[in-house]
Amino acid sequence: MSILATTKQNLALGERLVAVRVAAGLSQNAFAEGLGLSPRAYANYERGEREIPAAVVRTLYEVHGTDPLWLLTGPGIDPVYASERQLNLSLLEELIRIVESSLQHAHKTLKPDKKARLIRLGYEHCMQAGEIDTGRIRDMLSLAA
């Protein structure tokens, strides 16, 4: 068996597995059973003693909706579910409109990579805030342009 992840990565993934299991309100045995694993194999993944196979990552997604990217790389140990990673296209469209109109109004331009980064940061801010924060977006834009 090849080793693709470091011990540190396996331990961090194990912590995230514990967080998903606890959030589901299940014991190790019940969680393992729901994934089609033996309790011993699952316990090894949780302790970071074994690498988790792709099939188990897929099953965690299918059964619990766990975001595979978060499971494998983090950040943090608060479970992230795939449904939370869906893009809010309306928000994205509105941010692009705000950025474009602000740039036109100020008679300024940004290089595409800088504009994309600004839109990404604005999107992340608005998603965390739960609303479009036009003032913050314009402040970010004034710093970038």
Task: Detail the topology: elements first, then pairings.
Layout: H1 7-24, H2 28-35, H3 39-46, H4 54-64, H5 68-73, H6 89-106, H7 112-129, H8 134-144
Low-confidence stretches: none
For this structure, what is the CATH class of the largest domain? Mainly Alpha
CATH homology superfamily name of the largest domain: lambda repressor-like DNA-binding domains
Secondary-structure element sequence?
A: HHHHHHHH
Q: Mean pLDDT, rounded to whole units?
A: 89
Rounded radius of gyration (Å): 21 Å
How far is the first residue's CA from the last residue's CA?
Answer: 51 Å
| SS content category | mainly alpha
Supply the number of helical segments: 8
How much helical structure, as a percent, in the residues?
55-70%
Quick one: how many beta strands? 0
The CATH architecture term of the largest domain is Orthogonal Bundle
Q: What quaternary form is this? A: single chain
Shape: elongated
CATH fold group of the largest domain: 434 Repressor (Amino-terminal Domain)
The structural domain count equals 2
The proportion of residues in beta strands is under 5%
| Major β-sheet annotation | none
